[in-house]
Amino acid sequence: MSEPVILKLARDLEWLGCELEYQGMKHAHEGFPEAGPTWEAFVRQRQGVLATIEKLERELKSSVKYNPTSLVGVTYPIGEALDAIAIQIEALEDIRSSAVGAVNELPVKVRGFTQLVQMYLNVLGQQGSGKRPSGSR
């Protein structure tokens, strides 16, 4: 069984966020230069974090689609599903803020986000069956 896309992206974000924090620490030890290889690595890593956040937001926003007979991807009440998605999007906004201004906070936040996604998928019963129907992209 393949891993759900959202969980894969959450794990990618966790890795990238921890790497960004490490690059930020190296950058700080060098006195915060705005040029050179450490600065370039830091900027590249931050761009990776922000791009992954964008992908996650798109995935979350597209996870609930309206179908007249049922809501695809939602096996529990719609209000709770929308609340769970809103909480995840809010967490992504918090991670985005940290990626831009406080990278030292990232490891805890990205790990917490991965756990949040795992809980959401466990409730949905999609831990190992996150395949999208063909043609849904």
Give a verbal description of the structure:
Strands 1-2 form a two-stranded antiparallel sheet. The chain starts with a helix and ends in a 13-residue tail after the last helix. Helix 1 (about 5-30) packs antiparallel against helix 2 and helix 3 packs antiparallel against helix 4. About 70% of the residues lie in helices and about 5% in strands. The model is unreliable at about 125-135 (pLDDT under 50). The chain is mainly alpha-helical and about 140 residues long. The chain has one domain. It contains four helices and two strands; from the N terminus they run H-H-E-E-H-H.
In the residues, how many domains can be counted? Answer: 1
Helix residue percentage: 55-70%
Strand order of the largest sheet: 1-2
Number of H- or I-type helical stretches = 4
Radius of gyration: 17 Å
Shape: elongated
Separation of the first and last Cα atoms: 20 Å
The low-pLDDT segments are 127-137
| Major sheet summary line | 2 strands, antiparallel
Indicate the mean pLDDT: 81
Strand content range: under 5%
| Total beta strands | 2
Spell out the helices and strands N to C: HHEEHH
Briefly note the structural class of the backbone: mainly alpha
